[in-house]
Amino acid sequence: DAGVTQSPTHLIKTRGQHVTLRCSPISGHKSVSWYQQVLGQGPQFIFQYYEKEERGRGNFPDRFSARQFPNYSSELNVNALLLGDSALYLCASSTSPTRDSTYNEQFFGPGTRLTVL
Amino acid sequence: QKEVEQNSGPLSVPEGAIASLNCTYSDRGSQSFFWYRQYSGKSPELIMFIYSNGDKEDGRFTAQLNKASQYVSLLIRDSQPSDSATYLCAVIPSSGTYKYIFGTGTRLKVLA
After folding, report:
1. What is the 3-state secondary structure (H, E, C) of chain A?
2. What are residue A5's phi and psi, to 5 degrees?
3. Could you report the per-residue pLDDT of A59-96, keeping only the tens digit for each?
4. A95 against B65, higher pLDDT
5. Which residues of A touch B96 (CB under 8 A)?
């Protein structure tokens, strides 16, 4: 079975532009989470979606938004890009939202490397 | 105080030795704990998870959890150069949030 897939792999944008990142979860997984990882740091939680509903939001500005589709794939959108948005954006899938199950593991996709110039 | 703390390293161990990686967390009510391995330029890969106090073994890996002291550790026996990576500790807090909270990771170097 395929794991979590993300596209694109790499992306270069300039300040002020908009970007859309895409994620397809593992088959059978209904929950998708987005994380931002800057160099030298651990991943920081951005959003979690389950059954097309937002179940959690991290401490990120409103320039960040996301949605989940009926097939459980997800998009992360970032508007008005800043230099500080340069990072590895990770998508993780799990069978259910973290809150609903103690025994819940998240599996990460390969990530999208975003560079903002 | 950071929610999840790890020594950034690098932790250098000779090939064949035991590598010990530690993680402390601030939320006493946390219930779920995860160890991820991340090679440079790659995404995190789940190694182990632990929910109960004590030890959990999986091959060369042993996770240890002590909720009273609020720490979780990962032991890697017979360390190999291929184990050289950054090891991330992740915790699900008790607040009912939906997120994993990650530490900054410990860089492990296994010397051949």
Report:
1. CCCCEEECCEEEECCCCCEEEEEECCCCCCEEEEEEECCCCCCEEEEEEECCEEEEECCCCCCEEEEECCCCCEEEEECCCCHHHCEEEEEEEECCCHHHCCCCCCEECCCEEEEEC
2. -115, 145
3. 999 999 999 999 999 999 999 999 999 999 999 999 87
4. B65
5. 99
Q: Considering CB atoms only, which of B4, B43, B51 is closest to A108?
A: B43
Q: How far apart are CA B95 and CA A66, in angstroms?
A: 23
Cα separation, A39 vs B3, in Å, equals 19
- What is the spatial order of strands in the sheet that A5-7 belongs to? A5-7, A19-24, A74-78, A64-68
Residue B83: strand, helix, or coil: helix
Residue pLDDT, tens place only, B11-35: 999 999 999 999 999 999 888 899 9
Mean pLDDT of B86-96: 87
Mean per-residue pLDDT for B77-101? 90
| Minimum Cα–Cα distance from B50: chain A residue | A103
